């Protein structure tokens, strides 16, 4: 271990590893952006990375190194050598790639190796450098795995199938079409009734939120504040309902609904959705209610309000933030729900968005429509989520949430 | 002097409070009983029944009425049919109103006419049986009679034995489920998926939490971004993955070939061991945000004084993580492990959408759907559901023993 803790060992090792990470990142990013062929080279990563790792040890004038790196990698790209290789691309593109590679390699590397010197280093300094490297890698890794599927989703919806089969990496858009790039969306709303599905989803989700709140607020208050036999058992076992898999419930529900004619109705869906969300809403709210000072409520009781009036006039106004996060969370569950909608709805006029997307999954429908449908279902929930992220994260952590 | 000891037992006030509490809880309890408890009981019942998808529509008698012929030959015709091919319908009786202006001739022996109300007692209809009742009639205005005759729809009633409620039971469903090697392979797939999916999501979540456990510009944006997989509808992300990893036109394959990692396209979701690994990776990808969120929340509540003290004593960053952070996170990690274990075990949508349970990815939950709807044997599906339920029961015992103590749930 002590052998590693020397500037001349740590520097090159981190250098090689980072040059390879940067090369893979730049190749993937450039391939996705342009559709041209870029590939990282482990051999050049080794050759370039080791000396670069030494060169970056304890550098003061970082800008000069970065500039030199950019020029060096750009020249290498043009000549066809370096950690990123590309054979059939134009010179301009190669220059841009080289500069991008230079930035992606040098800035982080200088930062990783900042405190290392060209001699033996302490364990502390060594581990900090390793942690900085891992952190840099982590940001790249997580951003890539999260962004790539969503990028593919959006871009596929804007292309057409034959273009994508020719070159699955070419996501460049044909801007000469103008608004025509959005054609799969217009077709979706015109020919596939997505307007109706969206409205159905919205109505069902909002009603689910209302019914859930209506049921869970009194229940949560009772569990949090009132004394009765079985209160302890109750507050513990609420979440037990979560242990029951939906598919196990879906089977008897399907049978019962088929026999009573509730299958294929919005009412039927609205009988099931809230029950799947009430336990978590109740659990989240009772936690919040417990945190409210009981003295205010007692003052209300002393002044002659009944318990129900106390809930309505004191507790509820105080717990608006909690209700916002519960509502958001319940809305998200109802909006994203797939299995029950898939099993219980057959009539296209009653489809929710998720059920509608499932109906697009056929070999006759080009898949840009499938992806456009996915985007239509994803965007509202994302916008809602990003706009109210604070509430959402709070709600998610408070509720010990189901997946 | 009056007695000054405090009252024992329940006072009226306490009783009133308890009554109010149960009143407030009643809607929740009733709805949960109807939608969760009742179906669970039903599953046990169904699992012992020889029932298929087609048995859901009970056998019934069906009738069609026509006015046929003209003049002397005019007659009302009722065609009565048993809708089922294998269940008899008993106590079938037919009721209809004969329109004004239509005079009936000689009635068949089963029928009686009181005023304008016709009642026929048909008795038992054998499976798949057809019967025709002819009632000679005469009228002045045939067209009007035809219209009014067909306007008044006849009512028919009968009783049939539904497989759901009769006394036939069988153990065949369970025999089918436990039959041969299939059950063990399903169980093995479920365990692999659950164990690796859970541990993977926890570790990746821990890594992500460590990354974001410092404040810098853009931290909020990254945190929001990393939650995307969890927030997006499962159907949308599952199809994106399918398209990304498509063997013919997927970007992932194109990228791998171009980089020289593989010679020819890989069928990620269609090959035997790979498909299972891919659905597990998808599970990790989709649920790491959840672990990350919980772990981050716990991390940010750890006192920073401790780290400063450790720094002074010369503890290196890895030592600080191993000896300070990890013990503090152990509680939340074990809670998350148990919860995620149970939920991953229960997961259905993800695998159903990605592979449909093919290519060696059939877990117990997918097997419920497969048996009940693909093979149309609801009884067998229910039997698998019972097996799942029993597994979960044992998990919940563990859950209550350890977790509830740990975090005071």
Automatic annotation (TrEMBL), chain A:
Keywords: Cell membrane, Membrane, Transmembrane, Transmembrane helix, Transport. Residues 198-388 form the ABC transmembrane type-1 domain. The chain crosses the membrane at residues 12-36, 42-59, 64-85, 91-110, 130-152, 197-217, 238-257, 269-289, 310-335, 370-388. Signal peptide: none annotated. It is a multi-pass membrane protein. It is found in: Cell membrane. It comes from the Bacteria. InterPro entries: BP-dep_ABC_trans_perm (IPR050901), MetI-like (IPR000515), MetI-like_sf (IPR035906). Belongs to the binding-protein-dependent transport system permease family. This is Carbohydrate ABC transporter permease. It comes from Tropicibacter oceani.
UniProtKB/TrEMBL annotation, chain B:
Keywords: Cell membrane, Membrane, Transmembrane, Transmembrane helix, Transport. It comes from the Bacteria. Belongs to the binding-protein-dependent transport system permease family. Its main location: membrane. It is a multi-pass membrane protein. Gene3D superfamilies: MetI-like. It is found in: Cell membrane. This is Sugar ABC transporter permease. The chain crosses the membrane at residues 20-48, 186-212, 224-244, 274-297, 321-343, 378-400. Pfam families: BPD_transp_1. Residues 187-399 form the ABC transmembrane type-1 domain. SUPFAM superfamilies: MetI-like (SSF161098). InterPro entries: ABC_transporter_permease, MetI-like, MetI-like_sf.
């Amino acid at each position: 271990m002590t052998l590693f803790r020397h500037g001349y060992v740590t520097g090159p090792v981190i250098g090689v590893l980072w040059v390879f990470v940067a090369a893979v990142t730049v190749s993937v990013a450039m391939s996705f952006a342009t559709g041209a062929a870029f590939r990282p080279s482990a051999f050049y990563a080794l050759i370039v990375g080791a000396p670069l790792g030494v060169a970056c040890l304890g550098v003061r004038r970082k800008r000069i190194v970065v500039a030199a790196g950019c020029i060096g990698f750009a020249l290498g790209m043009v000549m066809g050598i370096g950690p990123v290789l590309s054979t059939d691309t134009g010179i301009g593109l190669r220059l841009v790639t080289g500069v991008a590679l230079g930035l992606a390699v040098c800035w982080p590397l200088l930062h990783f190796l900042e405190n290392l010197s060209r001699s033996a280093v302490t364990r502390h300094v060594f581990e900090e450098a390793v942690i900085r490297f891992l952190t840099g890698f982590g940001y790249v890794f997580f951003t890539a795995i999260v962004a790539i599927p969503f990028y593919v989703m959006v871009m596929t919806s804007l292309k057409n199938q034959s273009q994508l089969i020719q070159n699955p990496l070419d996501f460049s858009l044909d801007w000469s079409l103008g608004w025509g790039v959005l054609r799969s969306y217009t077709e979706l709303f015109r020919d596939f009734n997505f307007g109706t599905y969206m409205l159905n989803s919205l109505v069902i989700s909002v009603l689910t939120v209302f019914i859930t709140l209506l049921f869970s607020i009194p229940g949560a208050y009772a569990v949090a504040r009132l004394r009765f036999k079985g209160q302890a058992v109750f507050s513990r076992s609420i979440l037990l309902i979560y242990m029951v898999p939906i598919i196990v419930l879906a089977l008897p529900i399907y049978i019962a609904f088929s026999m009573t004619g509730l299958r294929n109705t919005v009412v039927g869906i609205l009988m099931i959705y809230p029950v799947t969300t009430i336990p978590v809403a109740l659990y989240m709210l009772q936690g919040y209610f417990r945190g409210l000072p009981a003295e205010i409520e007692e003052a209300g009781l002393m002044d002659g309000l009944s318990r129900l009036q106390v809930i309505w006039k004191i507790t509820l106004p105080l717990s608006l933030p909690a209700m916002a996060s519960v509502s958001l969370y319940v809305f998200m569950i109802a909006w994203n729900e797939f299995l029950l909608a898939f099993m219980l709805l057959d009539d296209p006029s009653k489809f929710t968005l998720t059920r509608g997307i499932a109906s697009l999954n056929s070999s006759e429908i080009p898949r840009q429509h499938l992806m456009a449908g996915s985007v239509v279902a994803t965007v509202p929930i994302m916008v809602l989520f990003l706009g109210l992220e604070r509430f959402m994260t709070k709600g998610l952590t408070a509720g010990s949430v189901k997946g | 002097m009056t007695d000054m000891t405090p009252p024992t037992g329940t006072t009226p006030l306490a009783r009133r409070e308890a009554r109010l509490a149960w009143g407030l809880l009643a809607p929740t309890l009733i709805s949960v009983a109807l939608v969760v408890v009742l179906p669970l009981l039903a599953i046990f019942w169904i699992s012992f029944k020889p029932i298929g998808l087609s048995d859901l529509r009970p056998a019934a008698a069906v009738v069609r009425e026509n006015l046929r012929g003209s003049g002397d030959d005019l007659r009302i015709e009722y065609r009565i049919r048993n809708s089922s091919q294998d269940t008899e319908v008993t106590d079938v009786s037919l009721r209809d109103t004969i329109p004004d202006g239509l005079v009936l001739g000689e009635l068949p022996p089963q029928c009686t006419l009181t005023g304008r109300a016709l009642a026929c007692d048909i008795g038992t209809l054998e499976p798949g049986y057809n019967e025709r009742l002819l009632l000679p009639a005469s009228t002045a205005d045939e067209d009007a009679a035809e219209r009014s005759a067909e306007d008044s729809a006849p009512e028919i009633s009968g009783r049939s034995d539904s497989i759901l409620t009769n006394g036939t039971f069988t153990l065949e469903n369970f025999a089918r489920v436990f039959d041969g090697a299939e059950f063990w392979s399903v169980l093995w797939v479920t365990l692999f998926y659950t164990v690796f999916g859970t541990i993977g999501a926890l570790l990746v979540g821990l890594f992500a939490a460590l990354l974001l456990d410092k404040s810098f510009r853009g931290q909020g944006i990254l945190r929001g971004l990393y939650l995307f997989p969890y927030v997006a509808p499962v159907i949308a992300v599952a199809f994106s993955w399918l398209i990304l990893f498509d063997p013919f036109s997927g970007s992932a394959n194109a990228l791998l070939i171009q980089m020289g990692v593989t010679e020819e396209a890989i069928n990620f979701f269609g090959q035997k061991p790979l498909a299972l690994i891919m659905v597990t990776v998808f599970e990790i990808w989709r649920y790491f945000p959840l672990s990350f969120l919980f772990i981050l929340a716990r991390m940010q509540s750890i006192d920073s004084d401790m780290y400063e003290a450790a720094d002074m004593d010369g503890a290196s960053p890895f030592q600080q993580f191993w000896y300070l952070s990890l013990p503090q996170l152990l509680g939340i990690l074990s809670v998350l492990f148990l919860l995620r274990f149970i939920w991953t075990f229960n997961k259905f949508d993800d695998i159903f959408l990605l592979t449909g349970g093919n290519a060696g990815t059939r877990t117990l939950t997918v097997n419920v759907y497969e048996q009940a709807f693909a093979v149309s044997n609801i009884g067998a599906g229910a039997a698998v559901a019972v097996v799942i339920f029993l597994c979960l029961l044992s998990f919940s015992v563990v859950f209550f023993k350890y977790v509830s103590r740990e975090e005071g749930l």
